[in-house]
C-alpha cells in the first residue's frame, strides 16, 4: 500500500523518524479527501488522531456528518483509522443505526470479504432496543440487562491490566473496524485507553519477532462461556459471518498479523481472549504470553487515553489496536452503543513490514 510521508528538512535521523511517525498519510486517501486539511491533532506519536469540535488553528472543522454516505470520505477515514489505530470526533451527532452503517462502510471500502457483515455478539438477546448488530456497553451489565454485573465497586474491581483486549478475537472472522459512543456519561471517569499493535511489534527485538512470526495462538471467549453456563443461555449464531458459528467461542489466529489496509505487521494476542500459544509447551506458552500481555499494558508510550464528552465518537481498527475501559465509577453509570464490523480471517503476509520500517523506507525514497 503506497504511503506518503511529508517531507522533512531535518538531518537528525531521530528527528526524521519522529516527523515520519506523526505526519503519516495514505496518498490515495489524501487525493480523494484530505482529512488532515481539517482541524485535528495527533494525540501521541504512534496512536490516536482527534478531530476537534472547534478550530484553534484557522482550519475548518470536520464533523462525522461530513463523511457519512460519501464513499471517498469514508475510504479516507478508514485508511486514517488503520494508520493511526483510533480516530476520535468530538462533535458526532449520530444514531446507533448510522454508527453501524459507518463501520460497515469502512470495512467494505477497505476490501473486506462480501461474507463479512456486522457482528452479532453471542450474548446479545433477540429483540434488543437497537437491533442485533448494536451492542449496548454498560458498566452495570454484560451486553444485556439479563447479565447483571456486581464487580464495579472498588474492592471487587478486576485488575485493570487484565482488561486489555481486541474485540471478538474468539471468532474465526474477527473485527476490522469498530465504533463506540457513550450515550449516558458518568459525572467523571470511565475513560477508554487504546494501545498500538504496530508499536508493540516494533518494540520487540528482531530475534523475538522471528520467533513470534512462526507461532499461532488459541483465542477463547471464556468469560462469555462462563456467563452463558451460569444463565443456561445459548449463544447467538451465525454472528455476522457464515464462519462465526458454534457454541465453543474458540479459534486459532497468527501471533503476528498483517493489516491489509496499511501492509504493516502488528502483535495479535490479548489478555482478554488469547489462552495458549499452540507450538509451545503450556509452561512456555504461559511465560511468553505473560510477557506479551505486560508488554501491551505496561508501555504507556504506545497508548492513548480518551476522556468521553457528550457526542464523542471513537472509531478504531481492531486488527492493529488493543483497548481497555477504566472501571473507576463505583455506582455511577456509563452506557454506550458499540458497532463492530467483521473483516478478513487474520493472516501474516511474509512480505509485510513493521510500521516504523515502512515509514523509514518511504522517507528514504
TrEMBL record:
PANTHER family named in the record: ALPHA-KETOGLUTARATE-DEPENDENT SULFONATE DIOXYGENASE (PTHR30468), TAUD_TFDA-LIKE DOMAIN-CONTAINING PROTEIN (PTHR30468:SF10)
Molecular function GO terms recorded: 2-oxoglutarate-dependent dioxygenase activity; metal ion binding
Cellular component GO terms, alphabetical: cytoplasm
Protein name per UniProt: Taurine dioxygenase
Residue segments, region Disordered: 327-365
Family: Belongs to the TfdA dioxygenase family.
Domain of life: Eukaryota
Basic and acidic residues composition-biased segments: 346-359
InterPro entries noted in UniProt: AtsK-like (IPR051323), TauD-like_sf (IPR042098), TauD/TfdA-like (IPR003819)
Sorted UniProt keywords: Dioxygenase, Iron, Metal-binding, Oxidoreductase
Domain TauD/TfdA-like: start-end pairs: 56-338
Amino acid at each position: 500500500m503506497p504511503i506518503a510521508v511529508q517531507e522533512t528538512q531535518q538531518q537528525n535521523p531521530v528527528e526524521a523518524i519522529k516527523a515520519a511517525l506523526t505526519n503519516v498519510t495514505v496518498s490515495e486517501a489524501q487525493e480523494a479527501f484530505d482529512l488532515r486539511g481539517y482541524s485535528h491533532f495527533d494525540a501521541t506519536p504512534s496512536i490516536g488522531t482527534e478531530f476537534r469540535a472547534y478550530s484553534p488553528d484557522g482550519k475548518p472543522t470536520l464533523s462525522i456528518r461530513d463523511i457519512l454516505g460519501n464513499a471517498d470520505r469514508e475510504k479516507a477515514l478508514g485508511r486514517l483509522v488503520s494508520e493511526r489505530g483510533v480516530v476520535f470526533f468530538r462533535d458526532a451527532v449520530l444514531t446507533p443505526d448510522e454508527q453501524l452503517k459507518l463501520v460497515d462502510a469502512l470495512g467494505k471500502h477497505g476490501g473486506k470479504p462480501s461474507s463479512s457483515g456486522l457482528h452479532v455478539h453471542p450474548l446479545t438477546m433477540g429483540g434488543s432496543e437497537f437491533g442485533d448488530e448494536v451492542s449496548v456497553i454498560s458498566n452495570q451489565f454484560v451486553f444485556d440487562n439479563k447479565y447483571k454485573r456486581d464487580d464495579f465497586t472498588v474492592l471487587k474491581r478486576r485488575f485493570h491490566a487484565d482488561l486489555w483486549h481486541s474485540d471478538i478475537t474468539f471468532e474465526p472472522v474477527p473485527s476490522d473496524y469498530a465504533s463506540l459512543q457513550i450515550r449516558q456519561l458518568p459525572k467523571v471517569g470511565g475513560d477508554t485507553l487504546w494501545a498500538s499493535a504496530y508499536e508493540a511489534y516494533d518494540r520487540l527485538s528482531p530475534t523475538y519477532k522471528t520467533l513470534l512470526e512462526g507461532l499461532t495462538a488459541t483465542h477463547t471467549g471464556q468469560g462469555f462461556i462462563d456467563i452463558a453456563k451460569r444463565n443456561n443461555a445459548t449463544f447467538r449464531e451465525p454472528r455476522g459471518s457464515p464462519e462465526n458459528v458454534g457454541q465453543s467461542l474458540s479459534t486459532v489466529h497468527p501471533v503476528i498479523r498483517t493489516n491489509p489496509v496499511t501492509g504493516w505487521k502488528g502483535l495479535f494476542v490479548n489478555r482478554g481472549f488469547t489462552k495458549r500459544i499452540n507450538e509451545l509447551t503450556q509452561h512456555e506458552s504461559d511465560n511468553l504470553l505473560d510477557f506479551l500481555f505486560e508488554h501491551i499494558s505496561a508501555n504507556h508510550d504506545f497508548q492513548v487515553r480518551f476522556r468521553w464528552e457528550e457526542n464523542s465518537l471513537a472509531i478504531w481498527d481492531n486488527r492493529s489496536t488493543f483497548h481497555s475501559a477504566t472501571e473507576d465509577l463505583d455506582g455511577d453509570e456509563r452506557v454506550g452503543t458499540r458497532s463492530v464490523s467483521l473483516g478478513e480471517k487474520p493472516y501474516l503476509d511474509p512480505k509485510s513490514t513493521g510500521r516504523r520500517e515502512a515509514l523509514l523506507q518511504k522517507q528514504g525514497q
